[in-house]
Amino acid sequence: MTVNLDSRSIESRAATEIYISAAPGENAPPQDQAQEIFSGIRDILRSKRASILQERVFATQAAMKDICRVRSRVYGDIDDGVAPSLLVGKEGTVGPIAGVQVHAVSSNSRPEVIDLQGNLCGRILRVPGRAYLTLSGISDQQRGQATTQAQAMMEKAEAALRQFGADFLSVPRTWMWLKDILSWYDQFNHVRTKFFTGWGLIGAGTRQSMPASTGIGLGPADGGDCAMDLMAVLEPTDCTHYLQAAGKQHCALEYGSAFSRAARSVMPAGETVFVSGTASINASGATTHIGDALGQINTTIENVRAVLRDMHCSDRDVVQVVAYCKTTEVEKVFNASKGALARQTVGGLAWPWVTVICDICRPDLLFEIEATAMPRQSA
Predict the structure, then answer these.
(1) Are residues 348 and 280 in contact, defined by beta-carbon separation less than 8 angstroms?
(2) Which of 119, 228, 348, 349 is deepest in the core (most CB within 10 A)?
(3) For residue 371, is pLDDT > 50?
(4) Is residue 213 within 8 Å of residue 173, measured between CB atoms?
(5) What is the per-residue pLDDT for 207?
(6) Residue of 345, 353, 307, 282 lying closest to 212 (CA atoms)
(7) Residue boundaries of the structural domains of the chain
C-alpha cells in the first residue's frame, strides 16, 4: 500500500513551521491506511522535533473509531490530548479515509494545551515577540436546532478568545464544518453576519475585518450540526491584511457570506496567506459552468491562483490544499485533470492535494478549493 505524504517546512529564527498532508494512494482497509498515514506523520514530527498546532482528519463516519484508535497507538507521547477535528465526508475512490492534514511547529517553546471547562480543544504557542492560539472542533450540541448551535458555537469561540485577551479581530482564519450544509447555509450566513456585525468586524465605520474562511458540507464526527476551527494571532496585534476581492471575484459579503477572499498575517515562521474556500463563481456571485465539472475545476483553480497573485504568492509557496468534490464522479474528473494542470503550469502545479467528497454550499457547485501559502522569505 502507498500513502501520498507531503511535508513542507518554512524556517525563521524564531520557529520552523511544518505543513503535512497525507492521503491514501490506493484503496485498502482503513486500519492499514491509518497505520501508514499516522506512522508517516509521527516520523516527520519526531525528526523535526515538532509539536502539533492543528490537525484534521477527513473520513467517513464508519471509519472514525478505528482511525482514532490507530492514531492514539501510533502517536504515543506525541499526542498531547487535544483531539484532531474529525470531519465526516463520503467515501472516495481510495476508500473511507480521504486524508489527514497537520500544521506543526518546532521552536524553543512547546504549545500549551487549552482546557476549556474540561475540554482540551486548542493550543497556545509563544515565541519571542509573538503568540498564537488555535481552536479545534468548537461546537455546542446542547442548543437544539442547527442555527442555535451555530450561534452558541460562535459565542463559545469568542469566549475562549476573550479568555486569552483576544477577540475575532485577532482571527485571520476560520473553518466552518456544517453538516447537511445545503439545508441551512443561508441561515448559517445570517447567524455569522449578525455575530460579526455585533462584534464590529463588519458594518458602518469598520475595516471589514472578516476572517478568511471555509464553510463546507462536512459534519463533525460527534454528530453535531456544526463545528469550527480557527487560528488567532494574539501578538502582534493588528497584523492581518484582508483581501475582499480578487480576480473575477468580488466581495463575498455582497451576496450574503461574511468572509474575506484571503487573509495575510504574521505567523511563527513568517507571513502566511490563508485562501478561503473558493469555487467557480463570477463577479456577480453567480455559479459558472453549471453541470460542467471540468469547467468548474479549471475556473476554481484560476480563481485561487488569482487570489495568490494578489497576495504576492506563487504556486510554489502553497503549503496545504484541500479539494472538495461533490461526488466521486467529480473526483475522477479532477484526478484526470491533474496531469494536464501540471503540464499547463510553468514549473508544474505541484500542490499538496487532499481530496474530500462532500456537499458544497450550493446545489449547483461541484468543486471547491481552500489553500494555505507561505511566501519563501525569512521572518
Answers:
(1) no
(2) 228
(3) yes
(4) yes
(5) 75
(6) 307
(7) 3-373
